[in-house]
Amino acid sequence: MIVGDQITATANEATGRADGRAWFRLPKGWRKPVIYRFARATHGYLSAFAFIGLIFFAASGFLLNHPEWFADKRDARQVELVQLPDPLIVEALKQDDKGAALARLLESQTVMAGEFASAEILDEDAMLRFTGVKANVDVFIDLASGEAEIETARSGVMAVIRDLHRGKEAGAVWRLLIDVIAIVTLVLSLVGFFLFFTMRFRLATSLKLTAASLAAMVAIFVFGVS
Predict the structure, then answer these.
(1) CA–CA distance, 226 with 224 (Å, rounded to integer)
(2) Is 23 left (phi over 0), alpha (psi -120 to 50) or beta?
(3) For residues 104 and 127, what is the distance between their CA atoms, to the nearest angstrom?
(4) Which helix (H) or strand (E) holds 150?
(5) Which residues on neighbouring strands pair with residue 125, listed in sequence order?
């Protein structure tokens, strides 16, 4: 009986059930301490990366919520004149996408800020637009003479923060970084919830806190958002 009582007590301690039966069966070779150690290690390593992203997006979101703190002024437009070779203009106009071809021609002749966004070609004039986080560029090309007037407007502090936070016009690499941060943060949160809900004798408190947080967010959305 003593041995049986010890076995039952051990089972109760491991499973948290009074009858000694497990809530679920782990795969053979797996043990709860191993899972917990793996979860804690995963949570710790992911935190090193995810928290940097969280700090940036939390800080940028906070600053965007108070735009009056910064005078979002753009520098005066910088104008540059570039002479495009006539043969290259003729070759670009033969392409199916004339605007993109002219954009590539410009990028081969001078340093352009931002990425090509749009183009409009009317008779002997072409207007191209490049957009980016750091600057927006308007280009006016006289197709007859080959003269290109490039107007560059540098972005202010708040404009840079806003576009980086939203991923707007930030380029494929930055958008990929946002996706990676989002996925890592999601995994980090799920692992954190797993550890949170497996804290012995605190499951009820964990559920109450989670429910209260969810209810608060829903209430703010319903009653506080117009």
Answers:
(1) 7
(2) alpha
(3) 14
(4) strand 147-154
(5) 122, 142
**Residues whose CB is less than 8 angstroms from the CB of residue 116 and which lie 6 or more positions away in sequence, other chains included:** 99, 100, 103, 128, 129, 130
Query: What are the domain boundaries of the chain?
Result: 31-66+164-211, 78-155
Higher pLDDT, 4 or 59: 59
Per residue in 23-49, pLDDT (tens digit) is: 445 455 555 666 667 777 777 777 777
pLDDT tens per residue across span 122-176? 888 999 999 888 888 999 999 989 899 999 888 777 778 878 887 777 777 888 8
Which position has the token pair 């890592």? 184
E strands in 104-195: 115-122, 125-131, 135-142, 147-154
Q: Work out whether the CA dihedral 100, 104, 106, 110 comes out positive or negative.
A: positive
CA dist., res. 107 & res. 143, Å (int): 16
Q: Which two tokens stand for residue 16?
A: 């948290």
Contact 155, 24 (CB under 8 A): no
Name the DSSP letter for residue 30: -
The whole-angstrom separation of Cα 157 and Cα 148 is 29
The whole-angstrom separation of Cα 25 and Cα 32 is 10
Which pTM value belongs to this model? 0.54
- Give the integer Cα–Cα distance in Å for 65 and 176: 25
Q: Using the structure block, give the residue that is written with the tokens 């930030």.
A: 170
For residue 187, report the phi and psi dihedrals to the nearest 5 degrees. Answer: -65, -45
Evaluate if residue 67 carries a pLDDT over 80: no
